[in-house]
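Need residues for this backbone.
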């Protein structure tokens, strides 16, 4: 993994040899070409979800745009390549599985050193507004969290339609900030994905009646689909919301990870007052230096720089 968290595989500059999807069994050369394509896209855009790898491979012509290719080629090869050590496990992200464990320390000095290292001022305390990023799919949380965490922005994942309890808590939080709130939503372009954004906006407004809320569905949009030539899939006719929906559907996973992160960052930085941010950073740096020279409790001979 590079400094930016991206996987830097062997010879990332080597051009991808496009392997035509075959109806029959692929040759070893075909499979090798797809493996090379996988290494290349992960080197360029990792970490990614498995679904994003699939869409990138479709985009470069390495595989066909079918569920069979997704399940029997992409998932299988990514599993084999991670198990063999050809690619690191960290180059793929999945937000669906996580562990709950309280933060504990081996000693008080260790706790204090960790606190000093992680000390941050709340970015939005001295800003005129407040920002939240909302995301339909939990699997993509690991792709955009590096951006939202950098800017101290909450990442709200609905996992499809959000519960009433989730919307109530989010609305009450927005009500308590007493400043304009800018909420940006990212979801699939399909009947349910578009409708979910309506439900979210309606819900948070209901539970934050006094808050000034600016809501925007950022992606995926028809303009993005056309301008970026995003891969589509047939709209599910079984979806009860498809009656008024026009065109084919596009998953948000079809957005290249770097483009998705750029969209998220642009939403945030558009609402940042750079002068207020600089004042906060200077205060944060000064306070961290003060904390570093505080003696560790239980070990007064050594400071917290260790």
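Answer:
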């Amino acid at each position: 993994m590079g400094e930016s968290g991206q996987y830097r595989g062997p010879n990332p500059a080597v051009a991808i040899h496009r392997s035509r999807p075959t109806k029959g069994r692929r040759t070893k050369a075909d499979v090798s070409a797809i493996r090379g394509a996988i290494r290349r896209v992960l080197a360029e855009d990792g970490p990614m979800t498995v679904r994003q790898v699939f869409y990138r491979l479709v985009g470069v012509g390495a595989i066909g745009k079918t569920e069979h290719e997704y399940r029997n080629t992409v998932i299988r090869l990514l599993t084999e390549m991670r198990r063999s050590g050809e690619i690191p496990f960290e180059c793929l992200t999945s937000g669906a599985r996580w562990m709950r464990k309280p933060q504990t320390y081996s000693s008080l000095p260790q706790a204090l050193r960790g606190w000093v290292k992680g000390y941050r001022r709340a970015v939005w305390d001295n800003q005129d507004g407040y920002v939240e990023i909302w995301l339909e799919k939990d699997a993509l949380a690991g792709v955009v969290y590096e951006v939202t965490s950098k800017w101290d922005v909450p990442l709200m994942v609905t996992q499809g339609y959000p519960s009433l309890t989730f919307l109530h808590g989010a609305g009450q939080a927005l009500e308590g900030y007493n400043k304009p709130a800018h909420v940006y939503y990212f979801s699939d372009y399909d009947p349910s994905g578009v409708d979910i954004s309506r439900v979210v906006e309606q819900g948070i407004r209901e539970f934050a009646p006094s808050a000034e809320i600016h809501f925007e569905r950022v992606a995926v949009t028809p303009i993005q689909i056309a301008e970026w030539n995003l891969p589509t899939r047939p709209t599910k006719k079984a979806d009860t919301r498809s009656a008024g929906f026009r065109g084919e559907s596009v998953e948000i996973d079809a957005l290249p990870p770097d483009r998705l992160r750029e969209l998220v960052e642009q939403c945030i930085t558009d609402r940042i007052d750079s002068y207020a941010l600089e004042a906060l950073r200077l205060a944060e740096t000064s306070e961290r230096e003060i904390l570093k020279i505080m003696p560790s409790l239980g070990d007064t001979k050594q400071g917290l720089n260790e």
